[in-house]
Amino acid sequence: MTIDVEHWTRRLAEIAERHDVPGATLGILHEGEIGEAAYGVLNLRTGVDVTTDSLFQIGSISKVWTTTLVMQLVDEGKLQLDAPLVDVLPELRLSDPGVTAKVTMRHLLTHTSGIDGDIFTDTGRGDDCLEKYVTGLADAAQNHPLEATWSYCNSGFSLAGRVVEKLTGGTWDAAVREKIVTPLGLERTMTLPEEALLHRAAAGHVTHDGKQTVAPVWAIPRSAGPAGSIISTVADLLEFARMHLAGGVAPDGTRVLSEASAAAMAEHQVELPDKHTLGDSWGLGWERALWDGHRLIGHDGNTIGQAAFLRILPEQNVAVALLTNGGNGAKLYEELYREVFAELAGVPVPHPLGPPSTPVDVDVDPYVGTYERASIRQEINVGANGPVMRLSITGAMAELLQEEPVDYPMVAVAPDLFVCQDPETGNWVPATFYELPTGEKYVHFGARATPRCAS
């Protein structure tokens, strides 16, 4: 079946307009063919049109690229996933000496290290930025005990990137270029903003007073690179996906990754406490989702005003990439992917969790309190209209984003499970309350586990 680019270009435009997305590109890999569509403008100030070769930030999809670098080092015999990181980084110091001694690369790639995950310390633009960042992790809180639960961890991927640097003798940026970009022949994939300036690059947009405006900051700190700074096109992103579908082999026959490592990345590693936000389980780098019995792998990415989505259906060799620069990218993804996967693969995309049709009576009092980790404070209270989660950004992220606290009305779905409505987008976000085996109370929200404060 040939990809009907005109049809998908039209549908991309229609759905993007409905959800106030300034610009987007869509890429579909199906039966070996890549089809691309573009919509809108790269920047509302300049009005420059989006084209299929336009660059967007792929955000946390970068974590799968960092994982690929790590698995290449495993293939080369330079690294063992279950060996203590201090074997490679003897200078590593974390706040918990026990975790310092025991944490492994597998913990980092599966988000189970417990290192507070949203530390975005800007350690400068120099080639030593990751080395400085890892030194700063000595002051990072231990969000949960090692392996005790799953919590999305950007910090762990910056640490993984430093391991890559130590074992390759260069920067993480150079490793991405030399070990993935060049072997795959990718001409529009890079990691640094000065490289993106040579191409048609999207600016992020944020919502203020109901209107899309250009984001005040373009790039995330270089120290967060391994967690989220790759810049690419939908075609280049799909070539990366094609390599994984092909068991680690590039189109020209170059082996980029061993077949065993490519398979291991997609295999089950850990269950998720919240199975309604990203997927049901995690591999090495990849998120894993089950759509009507069909296993998919993929990843999402969010930077400042840009959002990216990648889903791969290995059983049919289908991959779909969507890159956006503002508006309600999540709704665009949901509606557009529902159509793409139904038509090309016959696979239904699940609807996101929302309020139940019949109200559920749940006692909220056991969950009332303050939950806090680096960058985020979540306060659960009962207001005149029911329970509310007040979410405040704190620390360095608060200085960067300059955002006021946001109140999310909460609706019970089941005991320990609520959905919270984003007042700007109307999207419903699951909140799961649970305890660790040792009794500590947590809320899982936005893919993060946040511990309840003692008082």
TrEMBL record:
Signal peptide: none
Residue ranges constituting the Beta-lactamase-related domain according to the UniProt record: 10-339
Pfam families registered for this protein in UniProt: Beta-lactamase (PF00144)
Entries under PANTHER family matching the protein: BETA-LACTAMASE-RELATED DOMAIN-CONTAINING PROTEIN, D-ALANYL-D-ALANINE-CARBOXYPEPTIDASE/ENDOPEPTIDASE AMPH
Protein name: CubicO group peptidase (Beta-lactamase class C family)
Organism encoding this protein: Paractinoplanes abujensis
